[in-house]
């Protein structure tokens, strides 16, 4: 589950599925498009491997691919428990979670201009994405929404850790909190947040299990088959999930999957053929997270939406996503394509090695939570520029400030009440 593996892995099913629509989409890739795709994945792989070698040389004698940690013990042994959380805190957070979700639904029904919850979810999302007449929730509700959105990644880690180490304490309440977290994510109108939660579960489980076995045992083949089957089921219900969120589509299920899985290749080819490269910082697609962050903290006046026009061919929609390479080319042509691809690989490697070293042996590994959060953006590079648009932006900083506070509160703060008679 290294960054280079995940970056390349997403492009493989995309390319395979695209061949089924070669005639419908007129998929005749130009030499430039092929060079962008192969050079992009090749540069990411080469820079990642080079970064690994350099990192190991710089940390010679201290580097180990094994996550060093204290031997896990059951919560019954209070000397060195894994992740111990007082149960009342979890019940308190669950109550907070339910109240915020109900209040959030109440405001959505009032402000969404629709008659059903699904319509209001869709309307509010469209208004927020386009920036036209965006819905303004009360500031206190906004803060509570952000806390719930960030907390899910903390609770996912704790739940997965308990499952891997067979710690049944708090498992049910953690599962319920996780389910309500997914429900809240669906209320945002996007499916990406739910996929992000799923990716976090997958990566947390992989690394925590590897940590438990000291990387001396391979994952069983039947486990891999189960994951593949689960991914296939999620892919098949993807369209139905969109309908529940107010999205209407007349496409059949197979074309719907093709539009979200493979149409990015056709869109990228059309963009490269047009050759309209180059944008200043104020209109950068790649650095939109940074420019909007600077605007948020008052340093810059630049704030804009990504430029992702919808395309179609032969009367059929191709959507408006172009792979991660689109943003690089959009901003600075082939030079930016090389630079940003290499930079992405270096950043991923730094976070990866921070996650797997965990030299203090802590059960709660914040660096691993960050890595799992990041890898969704890397894995979906075939789809779009989640890495720079979302991961390297204000939202991630905000989320991990909240996660750090929550982890301190849930695992460090002990509240004792002394009663005197």
Strand order of the largest sheet: 1-2
Average pLDDT taken over every residue: 80
Number of domain units:
1
Q: Strand-and-helix sequence, N→C?
A: HHHHHHHHHHHHHEEHHHH
Number of strands: 2
Main β-sheet: number of strands, strand sense, barrel status? 2 strands, antiparallel
Number of helices: 17
Tell me the Rg in angstroms. Answer: 23 Å
Query: What's the helical proportion of residues?
Result: 55-70%
Shape: globular
Weakly predicted, low-confidence segments:
64-81
Q: How much of the residues is beta strand, in percent?
A: under 5%
| Structural class computed from helices and strand pairing | mainly alpha
Euclidean distance between termini CA atoms? 58 Å
Question: Main traits of this protein?
Answer:
single chain, 421 residues, mainly alpha, 17 helices, 2 strands, 64% helix
Give an overview of the whole structure.
- The structure is a single chain.
- This protein has one domain (3-73, 87-411).
- It is built from 17 helices and 2 strands.
- The chain has helices at residues 3-9, 11-18, 31-58, 87-111, 117-130, 139-164, 171-186, 192-212, 221-236, 238-244, 253-261, 263-274, 288-296, 325-357, 366-379, 386-391, 394-411; strands at 311-313, 316-319.
- The longest helix is centred in the C-terminal third of the chain and has 33 residues, at 325-357.
- The relative contact order is 0.15.
- The model is unreliable at 64-81 (pLDDT under 50).
């Amino acid at each position: 589950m290294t960054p280079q593996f995940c970056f390349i892995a997403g492009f493989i099913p995309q390319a395979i599925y695209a061949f089924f629509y070669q005639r419908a989409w007129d998929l005749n890739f130009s030499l430039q498009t092929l060079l962008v795709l192969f050079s992009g994945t090749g540069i990411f792989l080469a820079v990642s491997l080079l970064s690994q070698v350099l990192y190991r040389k710089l940390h010679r004698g201290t580097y180990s691919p094994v996550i060093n940690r204290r031997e896990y013990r059951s919560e019954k042994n209070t000397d060195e428990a894994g992740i111990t959380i007082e149960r009342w805190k979890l019940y308190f957070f669950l109550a907070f979670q339910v109240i915020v979700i109900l209040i959030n639904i109440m405001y959505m029904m009032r402000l969404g201009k629709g008659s059903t919850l699904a319509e209001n979810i869709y309307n509010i999302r469209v208004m927020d994405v386009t920036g036209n007449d965006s819905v303004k929730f009360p500031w206190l509700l906004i803060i509570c929404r952000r806390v719930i959105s960030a907390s899910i990644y903390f609770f996912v880690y704790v739940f997965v850790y308990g499952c891997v180490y067979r710690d049944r304490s708090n498992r049910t309440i953690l599962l319920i909190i996780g389910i309500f977290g997914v429900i809240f994510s669906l209320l945002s109108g996007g499916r990406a947040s739910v996929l992000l939660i799923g990716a976090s579960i997958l990566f947390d489980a992989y690394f925590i299990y590897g940590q438990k076995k000291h990387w001396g045992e391979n994952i069983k083949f039947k486990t891999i088959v189960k994951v593949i089957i689960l991914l296939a089921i999620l892919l098949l219900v993807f369209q139905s999930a969109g309908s529940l969120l107010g999205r209407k589509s007349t496409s059949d299920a197979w074309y719907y999957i093709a539009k979200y899985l493979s149409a990015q290749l056709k869109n990228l080819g059309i963009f490269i053929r047009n050759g309209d490269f180059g944008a200043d910082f104020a209109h950068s697609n790649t650095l939109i997270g940074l420019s909007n962050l600077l605007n948020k903290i008052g340093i810059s006046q630049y704030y804009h939406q990504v430029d992702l026009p919808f395309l179609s061919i032969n009367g059929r929609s191709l959507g408006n996503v172009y792979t991660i390479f689109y943003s690089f080319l959009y901003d600075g042509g082939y030079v930016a394509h090389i630079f940003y691809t290499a930079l992405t690989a270096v950043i991923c490697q730094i976070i990866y090695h921070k996650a797997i070293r965990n030299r203090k042996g802590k059960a709660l590994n914040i660096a691993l939570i960050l890595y799992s959060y990041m890898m969704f953006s890397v894995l979906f590079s075939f789809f779009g520029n989640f890495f720079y648009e979302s991961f390297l932006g204000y939202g991630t900083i905000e989320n991990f400030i909240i996660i750090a506070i929550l982890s301190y509160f849930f695992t460090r703060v002990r509240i004792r009440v002394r009663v005197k008679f």
